Amino acid sequence: MKIVIVGAGMIGLCTSMLLADDGHEVVVLERDPAPPPDPAQSWGSWERKGVNQFRLAHFFLSRFRAVADHELPRLTEALTVAGASRYNAVSNIPAEMKGGVRPGDDRFEVITGRRAVVESVTGRVTEETPGVTVRRGGAVKGLVTGAPASSAVPHATGVELEGGERIEADVVIDATGRRSPLPRWIAEAGGAAVAEELDDSGFIYYGRHFRSGDGSLPVMIGPLKQDYGSISALTLPADNGTWSVTIIGSAQDRALRGLTDPKRWEAAVGLLPLAAHWIDGEPIDDGVTVMAKIEDRIRDFAPGGKPVVTGVLAVGDSWSCTNPSLGRGASIGLMHGVALRDLLRDEGAADPRKLTAIWSELTRAAMEPWYRATLNYDRHRLAETHALIEGAEFSSKDPEWVLTKTLEARSLDDPDWLRLGMDLAMLLRRAGEVLDDQAVQARLDLDGWSSEDRPPLGPSRAELVSAIA
User: Fold this and answer.
1) Tell me, what's the pLDDT at 453?
2) 131, 163, 189, 293: which has the fewest C-beta neighbours closer than 10 Å?
């Protein structure tokens, strides 16, 4: 089968390797012209204008590592050689907090790095994969259509580049990510509107990267994501003795705007007890990198079971994307790519309408719950943030939110809750699945959890604002 994948980001590249390994002929088309450089040079020299968070914090969860180890072991091997951090997120926590080593702790192993480094390695491994051709510097103008597989539904038989070249394919896969133009392409081909839910996530990011002099990483004494009232901190190991620190807040919080100044940013991070030591390194970026206007979006290409186009399948962020603070995009995208490989293996492309309908239903059943869980967390966290800015309390009886807050509060002093929290954070279990666990239910108070007079962790709102000002 001849397959065209539009987009050479992480999910487009990984999906191309999965499909080529299955015997397909795959062409990957990327708008950005520059090829992946040597990984050691990628941070400073590689420009990827098509990826708006290319130099912001990135982290690849245990779920990504587990799937990649199984499906693409040559990729994880190459990442290790290039200096990607491969470590166990629980083993690195002090012994008194984790309660010693337990059977099954190996599931928390991650392999991670800065986006530029990981993508440069992935690009090189992809280009060495038999059956894959990567073409960079050619923007796709739209879909090429042929005889429809179903009445009044356009059928894509390939793509047309901006220069007029047409590339035929049995299946077109859209992996262009958050900025995917696929709905426009479908409309221009005469298709019906794609069903879409779209909203600004409401968060803003202020991040920096650091390097140690000896290749070591800061000691992890708390979770990767820590909530401190109206802000959150991400402390993320990367590759070759580098890491990132990011402050996340509401995009409406005017008091945080001073965080664009490195000195004020350092003053704020210095108040965070589990994160302050993470800035004891050499900064490797020019200042504070800011990202806002991050969309939560999900698309349905077969609303009501009726495809709006055939011959095109969306994967990863082209299908759905959320606020990236939980780091789930790469893991969900890789799982989605494996599911697509399996579907094409089982169904082929002989019946395009059936293929599209099955893919939409499979995506809805197997992948959408991950999106909904992430969106549910984001909506609650943003509402909590706004309440705390106003000096008010926030509470919710939503079971998934109660579970999340319980895990946040208890993971620092209860090894069982620590591991359960890591299962959720590393995308190894869904909150709904955990809530069906009777042993967990027995320990949860679904009417809300009391802090039991635990003092607040970190600065007050007034102290934070004062440090930034």
Assistant:
1) 42
2) 163
Q: Where in the chain is the domain with CATH 3.30.9.10?
A: 200-291
Residue 272, token pair as written in the block: 């965070």
Q: What is the pTM (predicted TM-score) of this model?
A: 0.94
Distance (Å, rounded) from C-alpha 277 to C-alpha 270? 8
Question: Comparing C-alpha atoms, which of 85, 86, 90, 87 is closest to residue 103?
Answer: 90
Task: Please write the tens of the pLDDT for every residue from 84-106.
Answer: 999 888 877 766 667 778 899 99
Domain 200-291 has CATH 3.30.9.10: yes
What does the mean pLDDT of the chain come to?
92
pLDDT > 60? residue 446 = no
φ/ψ bin of 138: left (φ > 0), alpha (ψ from -120 to 50), beta (otherwise): beta
- Residue written as token pair 């015997």: 23
- DSSP-based three-state secondary structure for 298: strand
The predicted pLDDT at position 259 comes to 98
Tokens of 443: 């320990």
Cα–Cα distance, 31 to 143 (Å, whole number): 15
Is the pLDDT reported for residue 424 higher than 50?
yes
SS (H, E, C) 50-116: CCCCCCCCCCCCHHHHHHHHHHCHHHHHHHHHCCEEEEECCCCCCHHHHCCCCCCHHHHEEEECCHH
Rounded Cα–Cα distance for residues 178 and 180 (Å): 6
Helix (H) or strand (E) holding 325: none
Residue pair 323/378 in contact by the 8 Å Cβ criterion = yes
Q: Is the pLDDT of residue 328 over 80?
A: yes
Which amino acid is it at 390?
E
d(CA 244, CA 242): 7
Angle at 72 between CA 71 and CA 77, to 5 degrees: 135
Distance (Å) of CA 151 to CA 15, 209, 388: 30, 53, 54
Q: Calculate the alpha carbon distances from 127 to 14, 28, 42, 130, 205 in Å.
A: 11, 10, 17, 8, 33
Q: What is the C-alpha to C-alpha distance for residues 465 and 469, in angstroms, rounded to an integer?
A: 6
User: On the CB side of 251, how many CA atoms lie within 13 Å of its CA?
Assistant: 12
Q: Which residue shows structure tokens 């990826």?
A: 51
Q: If pLDDT is split at 50, 70 and 90, which confidence band does 447 have?
A: very low
